[in-house]
């Protein structure tokens, strides 16, 4: 039976792994959207509910990563490089981890206000997650979707650069305008973790670029 399973895995198409990546991306988007909703609310009780919702999504994401690792370990051959797919899966898991940490930090710090720049950073995370949701299903037909894949990767990179600028401007703003050192520290730490969330989104795109490069090399 084990030999039969290994023989089936030898000829598994790329479709067996990509749905897991797409579901990871869906969880990332749901978590990012929940974090954005958290920032739009002033109800601390609602914050707690949303934080638990994000934690549940992160746990589900961990289960997906485990499933992915189990499938990829038995995959002897496929049309896409196994190591590159694994890097994408791990980067997506990091996305969920960081959003979970961001929601936890928001509840823990309980800042006196939510500045628009903080909302802008989280909005950028949501837009990255939307783009990743579009990006990953394109890998099903990577041969014919190179331009579309590259376009989405470029969009995610541009969003991350925008977040960098927002973070730097915001840090300068709070140091110039926030007299309360305790609140200043809260705002700076929150901005850092929100900006880190955009970094993890870009890491997904970077790993997809590597996959695209490997595919083109193997195809040539």
Q: Which residue ranges are poorly predicted, with pLDDT under 50 across at least 5 consecutive positions?
A: 1-15
Helix count?
7
Helix proportion: over 70%
Shape: globular
Helix and strand sequence: HHHHHHH
Largest sheet: none
Features:
220 residues; mainly alpha; 7 helices; 82% helix; 0% strand; disordered N terminus
What topology emerges from the helices and strands here?
Elements: H1 2-10, H2 18-40, H3 44-73, H4 82-109, H5 116-135, H6 146-177, H7 181-219
Helix pairs in contact: 2-3, 2-4, 2-5, 3-4, 4-7, 5-6, 5-7, 6-7
Write a structural description.
With 220 residues, this protein is mainly α. The protein is globular, with a radius of gyration of 19 Å. The model is unreliable at 1-15 (pLDDT under 50). It contains seven helices and no strands. It is 82% helix and 0% strand. Helix 2 runs antiparallel to helix 3 and helix 4 (82-109) packs antiparallel against helix 7 (181-219).
Give a summary of the structure in a few sentences:
82% of the residues lie in helices and 0% in strands.
């Amino acid at each position: 039976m084990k030999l039969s399973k290994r023989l089936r895995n030898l000829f598994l198409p790329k479709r067996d792994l990509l749905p897991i990546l797409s579901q990871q991306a869906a969880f990332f988007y749901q978590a990012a959207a929940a974090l954005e909703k958290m920032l739009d609310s002033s109800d601390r009780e609602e914050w707690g509910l949303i934080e638990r919702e994000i934690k549940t999504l992160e746990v589900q994401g961990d289960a997906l990563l485990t499933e992915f690792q189990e499938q990829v370990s038995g995959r002897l051959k496929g049309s896409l490089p196994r190591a590159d797919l694994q890097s994408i899966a791990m980067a997506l898991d990091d996305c969920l981890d960081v959003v979970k940490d961001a929601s936890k930090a928001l509840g823990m710090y309980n800042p006196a206000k939510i500045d628009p720049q903080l909302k802008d950073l989280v909005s950028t995370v949501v837009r990255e997650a939307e783009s990743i949701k579009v990006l990953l299903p394109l890998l099903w037909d990577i041969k014919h979707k190179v331009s579309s894949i590259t376009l989405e990767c470029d969009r995610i990179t541009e969003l991350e650069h925008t977040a960098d600028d927002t973070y730097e401007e915001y840090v300068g703003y709070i140091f110039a305008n926030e007299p309360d050192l305790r609140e200043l520290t809260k705002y700076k730490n929150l901005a850092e973790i929100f900006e880190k969330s955009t970094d993890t989104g870009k890491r997904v795109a970077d790993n997809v670029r590597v996959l695209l490069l490997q595919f083109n090399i193997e195809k040539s």
